[in-house]
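Hello again, I could really use a second opinion on something today. For a while now I've been wondering how a particular protein folds. Please have a think about how the structure follows from the sequence. Here's the protein in full, and shout if anything looks odd to you:

***
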Amino acid sequence: MHLDTLEGMGDFMRGVDDVASFLNDTSVGSAVVLKPSSHNTLHRLQVALLSVLPSIPRPAGVRLNWVSQHPGETSTESQATRYIQLLRDVYRLSNSSAHLALLSTHLLRSLFVNLGDDALAFLVGVWLAASSAAQNKSADEQSHIQYAALRHAGAFLEAHVVTQRTVDFQTVLPAMLIMLQSQDATVREAAIRCIAVVIRISHAKEAEAVYAFDAIYGNESSKLQYVDWSDFQKYAKAIGETRDNLVHDPEYLQAFHNEHLGYSKADSKKVSGYKQRILCYLLSHVNACPLPNVKVALLRCLDGVSNEAKVQVLLPTIEGLLTEQVEDNVLQSDVYQDLTTYTAAAFDVSAASDINDPDKNTWVVYEQLLTKAFKDARWERPRTALVHHLQHGLFAKLSMDRKVQLCNKLLYIAVEDDSTALICKKLMSSILSDTALILRLLAGLQPSVDDASQPASKRARVEKSATAIQIEEISLLAILAEVLGSIKLPGSLELISCLLETLHKITHNVAPDTADRRYVEQLIMSAVENFVQQFPASTIVPAGSLRVDTLVEILRTSENPQSFHQASLLMASLARIAPDAVLHNVMPIFTFMGSNVFHRDDTYSFRVVQKTIDSIVPVMVDSLKGKHGNGMGLYRAAREFLRVFTGAANHIPRHRRVHFFTHLVDTLGPSDFLAPIVMLLVDRVANRVVRQNSMEASGSLFLPLALSEHYQASIQLSLFIEVAREVERLTLSSQSTEKPFLEDAPEDEHPHAETSNKRRALALLMFCDQALQRSLSTALASSEEEREQSKTLLSLLLAVATARPDDPSYVEVASGARSAMRSALGIMSAPDFVTGILTVLQSSSVNAQAGALELFGDRLSEVADKTRRQLTPSIVKIVDRIRAILSAASESLARPALRALATISDTICPGEEGPITNTLPLVLDAVRKESLRTPALQALLSFSSKLGPRMIPYLKEIVKTCVACARKAVVGSTDTSPVATAVQVLRNLLTSISTFWGESELLQVVELYLDSCDSSESAEMSLLVKTVAKRASPNVLLPALCGLWERSLANQAKERPKRTLSFLQVVKVSVKAASRPAVLETLRELFKAFLSMFELCADARNLEVERSVTTAFIEVVVKLNETAFRPIFRKMFDWAFAKSHSNRRIVFCHLYSALLDFFKALMVPYMTFAWQSLAEAIRGYASASAEDGELWLALIQTLAKSMAADEDRVFWRSDKLRQLVPLAAQQVPIAVRLNVPEGKDALAGCLVSLLGIIDDDVLSKSLNLDILMHSRSEDARVRLLSLTCAERLWRAHGEKLLGFVAETATFIAEAVEDENDLVVREAHKLKAAVESIGGSIDVS
């Protein structure tokens, strides 16, 4: 019928009261006959058939399993299952609709009447099967069926209460507990109600019978275990007491069981027995129930309960899971994964006793479960549970035999299945904590040893191929060794010995071609190293307790870099606990390392070397110090050991050498071993270094130099002292009782020992010199100890430098010692440094004195001010010594002496001024010498800025000398470098003692400037002149300049214009810098000089000179008031216009224009003096004989500028404008006739300025018409200029001419018809200008 629900049948039973009558054959038959096509008839037939189904009797002779799920197909059992499934479907349909309540009641009544006492078992199957088939139903449908079944079950149980029948319902209680884990609160509430009724029933003292005894699960019911009535009562009551928690939290049941059934030390034997019986009772339902989800639900709520009975009860289920064949989709389902996980979790710490019991098969099942879980990737979750319990107590509770079996099982699994190898190794790493267990495992996996009495057979075995068993043994041992390398155990000598013995057997008894043999060796060495690191820091094992011969053999024979590294690292670790064993093999270790590892350029190899050195070298050092103490005895004893490293230096990659030797020295101890290491490194390259220059030697000595730089000052100084002593032993071996450290070097190739010693000594001195030079930038000698060390070093070097002055073969060594001595001075503290310099200066060695002075000049400026002040007594002595050197006229010493003197002056302190001042004459003498000029000028420069008034007595001589020096450099020498210095000296003197500069000194400087006007040093000279102008007294300077002009410059001005321009620049800056009173005081001389200059301009007509004179004159005018300036201006005007001298007039006009540009309106009133003369001069051009266009241009420009400046019409009033307008208009044809460049533009500009100040329309009209009238001239050029001027006027001031558009249009109309194209074009421009103001005009 394909009915899933009754909900869609509608209300076809509306009004029906008797379902039996409605569904009897007669009634149904009538409906079929009368309405065969009606849906109601169809529903009536369906319901009629459905009402028959609940009454079908159960199959005869069949035992029903009310909790079965899937129907079979052919067997008897499957018929019973179909019958149960049919009744479940009827029950589901009966509860599918609330609209057909009468029909549902009828069907359920029939169903329950047919089932009788089995109704509860049926309902249990309904709600359990509903949860099992949840994947095919919605959560609401599942909960609805479960809720209905639980409510009907509650009614069934209530009936027993009413009838007062005491039945033991323990067979159905687990099913109710499962419903307490539902996510639906209504289902949980219905379940707890059922349990509450069961609790009420169980109040009786005893039960009449057990409900569905051995029948609830069909044939599987025989697997159930039952509890006594009292235990059931107690358990049910405990559940009822937690009713609220169970209703509100679906997870609470597990917490309840953990508390109620969990193990407690306080439990009595009776309570423990009760808990175990209840646990077995519940777990038996896991074995019996066929539904996986039911098993999972029961196991989940008991997951936290640990009891030895758990494994015992569940063993059949576990065996079934291991043996049954399950499809992949089922195996990967959540339910099956949960089932396998919870059953595997039963093997917790409580199962240890059963696993250990040899008479039970629990270990066999557990071993099978381990194999299944670890090899089958789909059993990942059960494997996790097994691993968890092994790590949390189970493994620790196992017996030693079981532990060994378990570990071996894990090893075999790891070897057979690579995918789980990592898991097995992690598990073993976490559970292996017993040394005895590890020893048993190692003993069982060690390769067998050949008979020692048959060495031939042993050799034969090594040469044979590996067997399969051997390969398996090696593979198992590899896994175990890898695990041992990762675990942390307390240090055990027995374990390390066992591992080393295992390594020995592998090395000597396993065929070389066996797979992973080298890998296993490395793993075992790693494991040994791991356990060695666990020993306390102070642990020393007894001598001979560990054998390291196998490791030495690996170092000697291994071609595998990793094996070599591992053996080196292990040897380094063993050095801490077994120093005697390692020390016995120390030379072979580092010898093999030098040949196998040093050349490798990888970080790991380098770290291996470092770690080996860290561990083994200290052992060697302690042994050497214990036998030989410190000093040369220690050096000689360690020499061969140290040469193992220095001899292999070339094998180490270049970029790692410094790091390697730094690390080696740090490990050895720099205070004891830096010196011998450095000397051995220098000795290696001595043959090459002695033939190289300083730069090349620096490269050859890079390694020892970089090594020494790594350490602090005191250690470096100790190194230098040891090197100096070794040099002394090498060069003075006949006088020394102590043999040199480097004397017996095996690589010595020279047949003569003395020559070889000198070579080594020179190389050591070159190293010392280079190292000291590199240290100059650091404050080495700062502490008292370091100061004493630096003094000791200096004394040793001085002793070497002066030891054999008469020996020609000793010259190179002495020179090297002196060079190192100079470098040593550079590292000394300031007081010691100055004292040392003074000592050297008092010696007789010229070379030493020169070097000392150069070093002194370099370093003195770096001394702190406070310290510098404390050095004054010594500085005074040094200055006296320098004065003696300068007096001796030794140029080789004079240059560094002058440089040192300049440095002293730069850092001068009180008390030093007098001695320094006394050296001034000597410095001036040096300036006059070309070879010493540069350093002498530098010293003089420093003096000029530091000595101040103390230089007054020498001022004239200094100025004379500096000027002469600079003039010589500027004029006659290719080397101009002294100019800047000499000029700076003069500037400093002008700044510091300007008051004492007289006319003679100032003129010397000015003349120097004039002489250098053509040189490249003009910038320096310009600064000098500016300084003169600012610092010199203007009352002295200005008259001196005027006198200089009159005496010499005026007569040469025409021939030497550049010199004149330079002089005018001096005048300009001097006047500008002078005060107003000073200018007024010298005004007469100044004006006289300027008048002479203007006369020069009028005669020479040099515009550049004229501009310079005008600019300088403006600077004078700036300093004047009106009272002083007016007569000056009048005299200038009279000078220009008293006589008919056009050039003077031009100069005056240019001057007046410049004054108008600078002073603007302030100069306009002075037009009163010039107007008539200017107007008369302009009118004179009406005559054709007037041809001086330059003058005319100057006049026009002057008038234009005066009108442009007269914004307030101070001078240019109406009366003047009426005179000027016709005169200006008349200049149009004159401009054309004169044809002066810029004349036409100047005239147009003048007319624009004129119209700009006119405010009278009559004058404006007159000017416009007068200009336009020229457009009718016979000369096309005049017409063109007329239109150009008119266009300029309209463009600039069209608003003033707006009323004259008509009359202007007439002239435009005539012009556009002109025969000259340029005139026509200009007419159109004028037309455009007029139209831009007055609108369109008609010129047709």
In short: Confidence is low (pLDDT under 50) at residues 72-76, 451-466, 745-750. The CA atoms of residues 716 and 1040 lie 66 Å apart.
